[in-house]
Amino acid sequence: MFGKKKKVQSQNENAPKQAAQTKAHSRRVEPSTSPSRANKKIERSHRNDKSVIKASNFGIHPRMFSRNALSVVEKLQRQGFEAYIVGGSIRDMLLGKNPKDFDVATNARPEQVQAIFQRQCRLVGRRFRLAHIMFGRDIIEVATFRANHSDARSEQQAKQNNEGMLLRDNVYGTIEQDAKRRDFTVNALYYNPQNNTLRDYFNGIEDLKAGKLRLIGDPVTRYQEDPVRMLRSIRFIAKLDMFLEKPSEAPIRELAHLLKNIPPARLFDESLKLLQAGYGVKTYRLLRQYGLFEQLFPSLSTYFTPKEDSFAERMIITALTSTDERIADKLRINPAFLFAAFFWYPLREKVENLKNEGGLNNHDAYALAGNEVLDLFCRAIAAPRRHTAVMRDIWFLQLQLLKRTGSAPMRVMEHPKFRAAFDLLVMRAEIEGGETVELAKWWHEYQFSNGDQRQQLVQEQQRLHPKPKKKYFRPRKRRKPRTAE
User: Fold this and answer.
1) DSSP 3-state assignment of 139?
2) Predicted structure pTM score
3) CA-CA-CA-CA torsion for 276, 277, 280, 282, nearest 10 degrees?
4) Is residue 191 classed as helix, strand or coil in its secondary structure?
5) pLDDT at position 33, please?
6) Which of the pair, 375 or 475, is modelled with greater confidence?
7) Is residue 213 scored above 80 in pLDDT?
8) Mean per-residue pLDDT for 481-485?
9) Is 375 among the residues known to form the active site?
10) 44: left (phi over 0), alpha (psi -120 to 50) or beta
11) Does the annotation mark 178 as catalytic?
């Protein structure tokens, strides 16, 4: 894609003209030397830099990367900026995995990136300013090299709260400074497709070989800056089958409470990455081990037992196992179903309390209990309404599945969320046994029967559970008043 070296230099010589066109749109600081000379200077410095390694030694070549990511890097380099493909995509390639996305890091400011890509670019984020380069549905995320937040000149660039969490982090620096700001050594890898080299400042490649996950810098400080790093560490342990270095592992339990300071909407996104990546069961056990699951789902913690054998805990394992299997089979998954399963038994407990204490009927008790459960759930993790609405449907259908006479079964089966509700019923049967098993078998048979067979199933239910006959009472005849003689 990049062609020969001379061709790249000839393209770079046109960079001052292109920069002049975009000067009115950005406050770009022109390089002290021409782009071609700057690139030559960088290449000469790389030869003596021990952190620069030939990517071909690890079987990595430009053709393995996304064309869109390569085009972003090429365009930024033509404009005289440094640009690299960075982070997880390189880590996954070194591990023999297929990267899902490709991120780019550069010394160009977000406004300068926008001036180069114009309508194709969208700036996002306030806490951490990023540029998104759009190629249809494919989005390449471009981040500017970050420096230490202590170098900030004002609160517009960097800001922390009293517990050390970064509220704003837009202090820009060099690639060396940016590497120090990365979370884990295995993510602080930079790839330059122009000369097919890797930059590894913190022995991330060695850590990958050893299967070790290690934070860059002081673990306590790094977790305080962004508590979500604790969740990321769990995700990488489960996904990459690595172990967390002891200094990076030690503070997690003590600092787990800091997750309460993270916006609930961000925690919802992180929970999906944790539980819907195909390693849900393993991730759940790790979250429980480090005391992080209770921070994400505090209303479930009251149902935890020492032997982890309560109905709620067994349902969590069952739902996550099913999700992992569906991902392995490349089937669709829905977070609403997963969370509906998580909170089924807390919902049932509230329903029974409302019926016994408040004298409510089933329908009203489910409605009120559903509101309470979803309110507690969304306080910690802000699930969008499109998911909470589906959770309600799945819960209410558990009531409708009890009706197996007349035209009710056909109406229930026509509901858009019937299949999800039936899957939850099957999980309940596996956990509860008893009458729920018979109910699940009946609905399984009903689904795969023809019209006549369905009619027979319904008639059998009507015979076993006949409707009580209505009692009719004759109205009393009014006595005629006695007339005085």
Assistant:
1) strand
2) 0.82
3) -160
4) strand
5) 41
6) 375
7) yes
8) 62
9) no
10) alpha
11) no
